C-alpha cells in the first residue's frame, strides 16, 4: 500500500462520510463535524416518501389473480376426479403477471433513485452511510417480485427511522417488515401442532405442513448472535417454532389487511413454551418471538458480532481487536444505543489511521464519484443498471448475508476495468466544465498523492484528467 | 432393500482400477488438460438431482417433492437423474459423467457462508485459511502465460491467493480509449494492489475480444470455452452459480436451476470442440439439504449432497456412492443425508489425475492431508 497520508479532514469526509463535494470546506473539527450530523439527518427524504405504496400494489395484483382464478373455475368443466391437475394459466393471467413484474421493477428502480438522491443531497453523510451499513447488515435480496416490491420501503421504514435509535428497535422493525418475512419464507412457516396444521391434516392427511426455519436461522446467524456463537440446531428449530404466526396482511381471499403491514396469525402459531439457549419462553402468540428477539439484542455475542462488522467497515478488513472490544463494551453498556456506539467509534484512534484502510465497494465508489463531480441530482443516470454493471446490484446481494465488506471481494481485474469505463462515460458530457487539478485537492484535502497529481496534470484533456482522478488509487480507497 | 454398500454401480471400475498407482508425472510443459470448477452457491439438493429412487425411505421423506422415477433418467437400479438434466444424461450414457453421492466437505454446521468458505479454501474450519484451493492448484501448475480465470466480475474465494489469476465478465459499458487505458496503467504502476489487477484486466480484455457478451448459460459456456481453447489461454476456470437455496417452491425452482446448469454444460462441451476430451468439470455445493421436505414445499439446510463430474477426461458412466441409506437411524443427526465420501479427497484425486500430478502431493498442498479418491479421470 502506498502511504498517502490522509488528513483527519479527508478521513471525515471520505472514510466516515460518503465522499467530499467540490463545494465542501474541509471540516476544521472533523469529530464535531461528524457528531453534529446526528441533528441534521432526514429520516424520510422527499424522494423516499414519494414511492408508490408497494403493499397496495401487491394486494391489487393478488386480488386480480384471485378473481381470474375464480372466473376460470366457473368457466371450466367440473373435473372432480382430477384434483392434482395443475390449472393452466390463461393468457389474461400471464399478461397480468407480466404487468405486475414490470410495475415492481419500475418501483424497485425508483427506490434506488431515491436512495441515490438521498446520498447526494444529505446534510448528514456519515449517518447516511450508517443507513447503508445497517441495510446491508439486515439485508433482503430483491430476487423475486414480492421481495423487490418492498425493497425500498424496507430501507425507508425499517432502517432509516432507527439509524439514530436503539439496535433492538431496529431489529424488531426489520423482523416485522414484509420484505424480510417474505424474503426468508416466514409467511409460509406453520407450527406443526398449530390450529391451521390440525385443520389441514383433517382435510388432507397426506400433505405435510410445517416449519420453515430460514428466518429463525438467519436472525441468529446473521442479524444478532453471529455464526458459531454457541447456539445449536435445536435452538434454531425452537426459535423457528416461536416465530410461527409472524406474517403479513392480505394473504388470502377473506383477508382484508394491507399487504404492506405485519400481521400476526394465531392459527399458524405453534402452541406451548419454547426453550432457546437454555431459557424458557412461556409468552403467548407474537410476544414469544418478540421476547426472544429482545434477549438476542442484549446478548454479549450480538455486541461482539455488531462491533466486529462496524470496526471492519471503518478500520480495515481485519479490524483491530482493541477497537472491536471497545465497541462491544459500548454497545452492551448503552443497551444498543446507536449514537453512543457511533461516538465510541469516532472517539477511537483506529478509524483515524492516515493510511487508506478500505477499498471502496462499487456503491461507495459510485456515490463518492457523483458527489465528487458536484452532482446534486441523479437525473437521467439509472443507478440500478450502473450498480449491476459494476457488480453490486442494489438490495440484491443474492444471499441474506449481504455484501462482503473486504477488499478481496471488490478489488478484481474486471471490476476495476468497469470502474474506468463508467468514469469515462460519466465525464464525457462534462467537457472542460470541471478542472481535476482544482477539485482533486478539494475532494481529498491535503492528501492527494504526488503520483495522482502528476498524472492528472499530464492528461490529454480535461475529461481524461477527471476520469483519472476518479479511478486514482486515492479515490478507489477511503 | 438396497444393498447399503453398493459401492460402485458399474463394473467398469473394478478393484483393479483402485490398485493402479497414480502416475508420478510433474508436467514440465503447459498442459493440454482443462479443469473447470462450477460452484453451486446456496446448498443444492443432491437428493433431487441424483435421485435415490430405489431407497424405500425416499418417497416417504419427500412426499410431493419426490422426483417421479418414471419421468427421470434411470442411471442404474438405485439412482435416477433429474429430468431437467438432459445433456448431462447424454454425457452419462457416453461415459463422460460421474456422480459421487453422499459427499461433503469437512464442514457440518449448516451456514451457507461458512460452508462455502470451507468448500472454497479447503480448510478444516471456516476462515482458517486465507487463500483458496483452486489458487493453490494453479500454483502447482507449470508456469504458462496465465493459468486461471474466474467468469465473474470479481475473484471468488476458491481462486484467491498468491498465484496470479484473472476474472472476466461480459460488460455492456463502452470501451475506454486506448489513451485512457495507458494512463490508468501509469497511474497504477507503483501501486502493489492495483498494478497486477490492471495487468490481468487488460490481458483478459485482449483474450475476450469478439467473444459473446451475454450472461445466459449458453453464452457463459461459450465464453468460458473461448478462453480455454486459446493456445496461450488459461487451463483452469471457475464459474459461480447461485439460487440453489430452495426453502420453498423447490420443484419449479430446482427444475429451472438444473435446466440452466445443463445448458451451460452442453454449451461448454459443444464450444470446447476437440478440447472437451481433455476437460474435467467439477460441479459442487457447500452442503446438501434435509432428507425430509419441510412444511413449505422446500427443504432446509442439510449435510451430504452430490458432486457431479463431467467432461471427456472423466471416467464416467458410473455412480460412486457408499450409500448410507435414508432410514431414520441412517440420517446424519436424524435429518440429513449422512456424508460417506470426502469432498476434499474427491477434489485432490480429480485434480491430480487431470493434470498428471501425484494426487497425494495435490492433497497435501490443497488440504494438508494425503487422501485422494482414485480413478476419477483418465490419466
UniProtKB/TrEMBL annotation, chain A:
Q: Which InterPro entries match?
A: DUF1800
Q: What is this protein identified as?
A: DUF1800 domain-containing protein
Query: What are the boundaries of the region Disordered?
Result: 250-270
Please give the organism. Sphingomonas oryzagri
Q: Which Pfam families match?
A: DUF1800
TrEMBL record, chain B:
Query: Which InterPro entries does the entry mention?
Result: DUF1501 (IPR010869), TAT_signal (IPR006311)
Q: Name one Pfam family in it.
A: DUF1501
Recorded superkingdom: Bacteria
State the name under which the record lists this protein: DUF1501 domain-containing protein
The scientific name of the source species is Sphingomonas oryzagri
Amino acid at each position: 500500500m502506498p502511504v498517502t497520508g490522509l488528513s483527519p479532514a479527508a478521513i471525515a469526509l471520505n472514510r466516515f462520510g460518503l465522499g467530499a463535494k467540490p463545494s465542501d470546506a474541509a471540516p476544521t473539527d472533523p469529530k464535531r463535524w461528524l457528531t453534529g450530523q446526528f441533528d441534521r439527518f432526514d429520516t424520510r427524504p422527499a424522494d423516499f416518501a414519494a414511492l408508490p405504496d408497494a403493499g397496495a400494489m401487491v394486494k391489487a395484483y393478488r386480488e386480480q389473480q384471485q378473481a381470474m382464478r375464480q372466473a376460470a373455475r366457473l368457466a371450466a368443466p367440473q373435473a372432480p376426479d382430477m384434483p392434482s391437475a395443475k390449472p393452466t394459466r390463461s393468457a389474461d393471467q400471464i399478461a397480468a403477471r407480466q404487468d405486475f413484474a414490470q410495475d415492481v421493477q419500475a418501483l424497485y428502480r425508483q427506490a434506488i433513485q431515491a436512495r441515490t438522491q438521498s446520498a447526494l443531497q444529505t446534510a448528514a453523510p456519515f449517518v447516511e452511510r450508517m443507513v447503508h451499513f445497517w441495510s446491508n447488515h439486515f439485508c433482503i435480496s430483491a430476487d423475486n417480485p414480492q421481495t423487490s416490491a418492498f425493497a425500498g420501503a424496507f430501507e425507508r421504514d425499517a432502517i432509516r427511522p432507527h439509524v439514530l435509535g436503539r439496535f433492538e428497535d431496529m431489529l424488531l422493525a426489520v423482523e416485522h417488515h414484509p420484505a424480510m418475512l417474505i424474503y426468508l419464507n416466514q409467511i409460509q412457516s406453520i407450527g406443526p401442532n398449530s390450529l391451521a396444521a390440525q385443520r389441514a391434516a383433517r382435510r388432507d392427511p397426506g400433505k405435510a405442513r410445517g416449519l420453515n426455519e430460514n428466518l429463525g436461522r438467519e436472525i441468529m446467524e446473521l442479524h444478532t448472535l453471529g455464526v458459531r456463537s454457541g447456539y445449536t440446531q435445536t435452538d434454531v428449530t425452537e426459535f423457528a417454532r416461536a416465530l410461527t404466526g409472524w406474517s403479513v396482511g392480505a394473504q388470502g381471499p377473506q383477508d382484508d389487511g394491507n399487504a404492506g403491514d405485519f400481521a400476526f396469525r394465531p392459527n399458524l402459531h405453534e402452541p406451548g413454551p419454547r426453550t432457546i439457549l437454555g431459557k424458557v419462553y412461556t409468552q403467548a402468540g407474537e410476544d414469544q418471538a418478540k421476547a426472544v428477539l429482545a434477549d438476542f439484542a442484549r446478548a454479549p455475542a450480538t455486541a461482539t458480532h455488531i462491533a466486529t462488522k462496524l470496526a471492519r467497515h471503518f478500520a480495515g478488513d481485519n479490524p483491530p481487536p482493541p477497537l472491536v472490544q471497545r465497541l462491544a463494551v459500548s454497545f452492551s453498556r448503552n443497551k444498543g444505543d446507536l449514537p453512543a456506539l457511533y461516538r465510541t467509534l469516532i472517539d477511537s484512534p483506529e478509524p483515524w489511521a492516515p493510511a487508506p484502510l478500505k477499498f471502496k465497494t462499487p456503491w461507495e465508489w459510485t456515490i463518492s464519484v457523483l458527489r465528487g463531480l458536484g452532482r446534486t441530482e441523479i437525473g437521467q443516470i439509472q443507478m440500478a443498471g450502473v450498480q449491476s454493471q459494476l457488480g453490486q446490484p442494489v438490495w440484491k446481494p443474492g444471499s441474506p448475508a449481504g455484501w462482503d465488506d473486504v477488499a478481496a471481494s471488490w478489488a478484481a481485474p474486471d471490476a476495476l476495468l468497469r470502474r474506468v469505463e463508467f468514469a469515462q462515460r460519466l465525464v464525457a458530457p462534462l467537457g472542460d466544465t470541471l478542472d481535476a487539478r482544482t477539485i482533486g485537492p478539494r475532494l481529498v484535502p491535503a492528501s492527494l498523492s504526488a503520483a495522482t497529481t502528476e498524472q492528472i496534470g499530464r492528461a490529454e484533456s480535461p475529461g481524461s484528467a477527471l476520469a483519472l482522478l476518479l479511478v486514482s488509487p486515492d479515490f478507489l480507497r477511503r | 432393500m438396497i444393498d447399503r454398500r453398493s459401492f460402485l454401480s458399474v463394473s467398469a471400475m473394478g478393484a483393479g482400477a483402485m490398485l493402479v498407482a497414480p502416475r508420478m508425472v510433474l508436467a514440465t510443459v503447459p498442459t493440454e488438460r482443462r479443469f473447470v470448477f462450477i460452484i453451486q452457491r446456496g446448498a443444492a439438493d443432491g437428493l433431487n438431482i441424483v435421485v435415490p429412487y430405489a431407497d424405500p425411505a425416499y418417497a416417504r421423506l419427500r412426499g410431493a417433492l419426490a422426483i417421479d422415477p418414471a419421468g427421470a433418467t434411470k442411471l442404474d437400479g438405485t439412482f435416477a437423474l433429474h429430468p431437467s438434466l438432459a445433456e448431462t444424461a447424454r454425457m452419462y450414457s457416453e461415459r463422460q459423467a460421474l456422480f459421487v453421492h453422499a459427499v461433503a466437505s469437512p464442514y457440518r454446521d449448516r451456514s451457507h457462508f461458512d460452508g462455502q468458505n470451507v468448500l472454497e479454501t479447503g480448510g478444516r474450519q471456516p476462515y482458517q485459511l486465507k487463500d483458496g484451493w483452486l489458487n493453490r492448484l494453479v500454483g502447482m501448475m507449470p508456469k504458462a502465460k496465465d493459468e486461471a480465470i474466474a467468469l465473474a466480475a470479481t475473484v471468488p474465494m476458491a481462486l484467491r491467493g498468491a498465484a496470479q489469476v484473472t476474472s472476466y465478465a461480459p460488460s455492456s459499458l463502452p470501451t475506454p480509449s486506448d489513451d485512457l487505458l495507458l494512463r490508468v496503467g501509469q497511474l497504477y504502476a507503483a501501486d502493489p494492489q492495483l498494478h497486477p489487477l490492471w495487468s490481468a484486466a487488460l490481458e483478459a480484455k485482449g483474450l475476450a475480444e469478439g467473444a459473446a457478451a451475454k450472461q445466459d448459460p449458453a453464452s457463459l459456456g461459450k465464453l468460458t470455452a473461448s478462453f480455454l481453447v486459446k493456445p496461450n489461454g488459461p487451463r483452469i476456470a471457475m464459474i459461480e452459480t447461485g439460487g440453489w437455496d430452495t426453502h420453498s417452491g423447490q420443484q419449479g425452482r430446482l427444475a429451472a436451476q438444473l435446466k440452466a446448469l445443463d445448458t451451460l454444460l452442453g454449451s461448454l462441451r459443444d464450444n470446447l470442440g476437440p478440447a472437451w476430451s481433455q476437460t474435467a468439470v467439477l460441479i459442487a455445493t457447500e452442503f446438501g439439504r434435509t432428507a425430509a421436505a419441510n412444511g413449505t414445499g422446500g427443504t432446509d439446510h442439510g449435510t451430504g449432497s452430490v458432486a457431479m463430474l463431467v467432461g471427456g477426461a472423466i471416467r464416467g458412466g458410473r455412480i460412486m456412492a457408499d450409500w448410507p441409506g435414508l432410514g431414520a437411524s441412517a440420517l446424519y443427526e436424524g435429518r440429513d443425508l449422512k456424508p460417506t465420501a470426502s469432498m476434499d479427497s474427491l477434489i485432490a484425486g480429480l485434480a491430480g489425475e487431470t493434470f498428471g500430478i501425484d494426487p497425494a502431493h495435490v492433497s497435501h498442498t490443497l488440504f494438508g492431508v494425503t487422501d485422494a479418491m482414485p480413478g476419477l479421470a483418465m490419466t
